[in-house]
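Reviewers of the previous submission asked for a worked example of the structure-prediction workflow described in the proposal, so we include one complete record here. The input consisted solely of the amino acid sequence. No template or homolog information was supplied to the procedure at any stage.
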Amino acid sequence: MNESTEQGAGGGRAGAAIAAVLLLACGGLVGYGVLDTEEKPKPPAVPTAAVTYEVTGEGPVEISYLARSEDGTATVVRDAELPWKKTVQVPLGKPPTIAIVLGEKGGQAACTLAIRGEHVQRATAMGEFGRATCAGELPAADN
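From that input alone, the workflow returned the following structure tokens.
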């Protein structure tokens, strides 16, 4: 009996050693996933240009303009009181655009667009639900 007790103890130690190795291996894999602090690469910054939109006249008016939205979606300001002015950064490759729509009471309003401080376009909306759009093209990043 003494002999079998020693074999059982030896087999138990081997089983415990294998279990410990497996436990450490699993713990290492989990720890690697949890403790992995390596920063993920950030997407490259999209170069932009300063664009100034301005609307003058009789309001209220609905204004839609392109700002720093890489997917090209517009920002909308409803019932804007005039005069209204905003300077934003627009990604190169996206044409800066501002559109205005007068309400049912009509009136007259004008939009202007300036890129990097230089006037690009002006348009006027008149009358009931009158519309106007100003658009431009952004110069290259090194211009």
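Residues 112 and 122 are 4 Å apart (CA to CA). We consider this example representative of the routine output the project will generate in years two and three.
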